[in-house]
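In response to the reviewer comment on reproducibility (Comment 2.3), we provide here a single inverse folding case reported in full, input and output, so that an independent group could reproduce the run without further information from us. The structure tokens appear first.
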């Protein structure tokens, strides 16, 4: 039996795959502008970005521009043996990344600079769907859920999504860590405050 979450996953993947490359890139640029306008982004010294796959909100330009303005960027990597996601500081995206597990890019072994989660002030989170209460639906592997459960008080979480990925209500569990903000090409949704800026 297919769960409600799996139904949503399939629907969102289909929608995401049907958005053309040009639209994906242009909406991602709009999302970048909103992100860079956020106070929690301006004030963060160390930002964690996910490394986008082809149909996700694109983060490559965000990463490069964040490095260019002098912030530290860390990205996730997975150690295949224990299946745990950790963070590594990234200084040169063009030279340091290779495809890792699930074909998601991550730093090559020789460029790993492990960075503890408590150094990260802002976590940029991917998702297949989000809802207006800040809940997110990932691929179901639980990497981000486990990590978010361990983040320190005061670390902000921002989910990046195309507008069609934001729903009114997602199935959520009490242990799920909600986002503080969700950014779409249409603007910033501040969780806990109604409406979009």
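Designed residues, in position order:
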């Amino acid at each position: 039996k297919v769960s409600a979450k799996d139904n949503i996953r399939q629907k969102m993947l289909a929608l995401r795959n049907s958005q053309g490359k040009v639209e994906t890139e242009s909406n991602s640029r709009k999302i970048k502008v909103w992100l860079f306008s956020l106070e929690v982004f301006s004030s963060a010294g160390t930002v964690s970005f996910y490394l986008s796959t082809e149909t996700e909100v694109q983060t490559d330009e965000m990463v490069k521009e964040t490095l260019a303005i002098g912030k530290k960027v860390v990205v996730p990597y997975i150690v295949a043996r224990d299946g745990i996601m950790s963070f590594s500081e990234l200084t040169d995206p063009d030279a340091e990344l290779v495809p890792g597990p699930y074909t998601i890019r991550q730093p090559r072994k020789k460029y790993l600079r492990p960075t503890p989660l408590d150094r990260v002030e802002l976590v940029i989170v991917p998702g297949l769907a989000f809802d207006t209460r800040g809940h997110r639906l990932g691929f179901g592997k639980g990497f981000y859920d486990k990590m978010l459960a361990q983040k320190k008080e005061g670390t902000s979480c921002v989910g990046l999504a195309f507008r069609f990925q934001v729903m009114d209500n997602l199935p959520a569990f009490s242990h799920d860590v909600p986002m503080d903000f969700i950014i779409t090409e249409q603007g910033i949704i501040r969780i806990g405050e109604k409406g979009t800026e």
